[in-house]
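Re: that chain you flagged

S.,

Sorry for the slow reply, it's been a week of failed gels. I finally had a moment to sit down with the sequence you sent. For the record, here it is as I used it:
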Amino acid sequence: MKIEILEFAEGARKARGVAVIIDVFRAFSVACYAFDSGAVRLIATGEVEEAFKLKKNYRNSVLAGERNERRIDGFDYGNSPTEIIKANLTGKTVIQTTTAGTNGLVNAVNADIVITGSLVNAGAVVRYIKNINPGYVSLVAMGYRAEISADEDLLCAEIIKAGLGGNEKNFETRINDLRHGAGSRFFNPRNIDHSPPTDFFLCTMVNRFDFILRAEKRNDGNIDLIKTEITSTQYPAL
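Prediction finished late last night. Pasting the structure tokens below so you have them in one place:
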């Protein structure tokens, strides 16, 4: 199994084999929490206008996402797991658009299989990939606003790569250190309304969820994220 770490939308376009599109802070952490909060469907799109169009087609739907880290005008939720865990999404369709993560999904056009990646389900991602044993894995760290390398995304990629290689490294210290680097914005009082401190802790709860989210391209060009349980009884342990 050859494993490559790439970055940004350009990396997503280069991805092949199994592509893991990684956005820890916060898109694909939010997506996991949305399913955990009862959502039955999640549609990812790269454009705000497309999100509003999709909402018209799904009666029991909500909009979640951000531009410049803040909730988009007219959206029900921002890109905050703190908001999502307080919501009752039972039976709802979540339509999500973000600056980095969802654009990574849309651009991963050359991969055979596309899944999302975040710290909250990194172990499930590893077990899933080990089970299908592909020849090539592309780990795409989407970065801050899909333009600047993000420590949390690159660290998540490293954790997944280590797990696939059977490397039992301890990453706890480096995850905690994100608080003083890439995650410091969550502790800035000026960001409390859209990026509260709880977002940092929710996004760094490693292996909280035992499922992966697989991307399936729709006829309209958007992406359905399909939840698949990856339990330790079904798949080999890390």
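What I noticed first: The radius of gyration is 16 Å.

Talk soon,
D.
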